[in-house]
Amino acid sequence: MATIKDVAKLAGVALSTASYALNGDSKVSAKTRAKVVEAARQLNYRKNGIAMDLKRSQTNTIALILTDMSGPYYSELIHSVQEVAISNGYDLIACSSMGGRDSTAVKFLREKRVDGAIVLASNINNEVLIEAAEQGFPIIVMDREINSDFLVSVLVDGEQGGYVATRYLIDHGHKRIAYISGPANSYDSQLRYQGYLRAMAEAGLEEQSKWRLNGNFVREGGYSATKMIIMQGELPSAIFYGNDEMAVGGVKAFQEQGISIPEQVSVIGFDDIQLSEYLSPSLTTIRQPMHEAGSLAAHLLFQRLSGADVNREYKLTIEMIERNSVRQL
Amino acid sequence: MATIKDVAKLAGVALSTASYALNGDSKVSAKTRAKVVEAARQLNYRKNGIAMDLKRSQTNTIALILTDMSGPYYSELIHSVQEVAISNGYDLIACSSMGGRDSTAVKFLREKRVDGAIVLASNINNEVLIEAAEQGFPIIVMDREINSDFLVSVLVDGEQGGYVATRYLIDHGHKRIAYISGPANSYDSQLRYQGYLRAMAEAGLEEQSKWRLNGNFVREGGYSATKMIIMQGELPSAIFYGNDEMAVGGVKAFQEQGISIPEQVSVIGFDDIQLSEYLSPSLTTIRQPMHEAGSLAAHLLFQRLSGADVNREYKLTIEMIERNSVRQL
DNA sequence: GTGAAAGCGCTAACAA
DNA sequence: TTGTTAGCGCTTTCAC
């Protein structure tokens, strides 16, 4: 591996001159520059980015931290963040937080291998975030409320989402409404559930405990929970799935039993994943404004990076996506 | 930002002792270690990973480079690579190659910000890869054949895939078969097309130029190409879409015109994206063994990293996924 | 068991 | 315009 030292030597100039030449500094003469560039070419010289970062004390890259880098659900988010990063002249990398404390994500956060981060990974606990964030190392958190300097939250109003979804069912004449939840410790799941409860209470409806099941936010969980409901004999008139993944599983369970949606049971989801539009019937759901959320998060990060002050918390509102899985009673 | 120097000073020990203590070296006494750890805690000391990487001349992380970090299609790949990375004690980051020469991906490759990379990004040209790869910096390429030291290819046999897909249609009695291609410069598209041609020729069938359209591998392209075919009046009996995304667009175009699949026209795709199973009718397609491919690529990378020799090229075979979009004539 | 010091490859202030 | 030099924060050899 040739270093800049080798290049300088071969070109017969000082180290600094080589550095200037290679970085396009205007104070080096065209002739010298040519010599240096030629030497670099000959040696197949490649700058060591790490050394540069160390010297500059900045990496010019930000990290997007996700539990699982690959969820289709993140697509929009990644795009919008990337767009903003590029337009600010920054690079973006994605890291996974799988593995918790020894995950890549935590390493990048703790060891400051990037200049800032956007986090959407519920398996990273508050403590890690609070410790990592500091002056000059802003973190934008997208999945929780958290109160600490150098940390800002960009949230989607899940309580409202849960309320709107449930309200939509009620307005369509449904009274016996089941809720399939995510993991018990999920902040998102709790909010949606609260919204559900609020709408139910407001309409004077009672939640039935046999119709509150856990599906862990995964397809398989939605499937099992739905099976359970079917086996109980009495079907609710509508089911609110805490996310679309579980709804997909639920739809499958109903199909297998020959129970038709929305004729025999109405279904509503949450997230508006890509699949939802293509299910049959297409899934009525709640869309989170992921593009806006990502864009906002990224903008805030760069504002913090440039020293500007921003609020502690931003809350975006959801959008109802009406399709064909809910029947008017 | 406290550095190790500050920690050493506060603990009243030498720099090196602090380093040893913090890294759990056995030669420092329990008492000294306690002092150091306490000082670090007080100062909220965080090791600077970049400095460490520079000193060690290695980062312990590998990069997975994708054109677009978010394609649902990559999900399996990412998982399998991550699994192998973790089991080798390495970290994984994903970078996008959007932006070509000034993309994050190229920067990470050229400036050796990682120890090695797996590349699946057709917008990065050979030259960049050849220049970047060298002794101690292995690159595994998943989307092309490329001949250079320090570069190894892991490929899925696209020609065979195209052949199998087309052959499947022919075996089901189809003779008038259209092919919707990806971008003209796409290596994958070309291979699939060649496989198509081989199967056609073998069966003594002629390709009709009016039924060879470009859909650029995107949904919208599949939609337009299909519209075009419909407008031409005479429908082929089957269409082979170069990938599932285009097939999804095509199915939509047919639905809009009230043309039913597979009764009036059969459809086959390529890739087996998540959606395919949920389309109605569910899409018959060709699955690429992405899990195996990712796993193999990662294993090879670590083998190269540890100095072992591996072959220049590995080729995996595809799998036929029979569903309901092709009719037996 | 602890400390002094060299140096990873680079940038940038300062001197010439 | 070019060269000399001091670090960035860390690990690690070597001497004590």
Automatic annotation (TrEMBL), chains A, B:
One matching Pfam family:
LacI
Q: Which residues form a coiled coil?
A: none
* Domain spans labelled HTH lacI-type: 2-56
Q: Which UniProt keywords apply?
A: DNA-binding, Transcription, Transcription regulation
Give the domain of life: Bacteria
Can you say what this protein is called?
LacI family transcriptional regulator
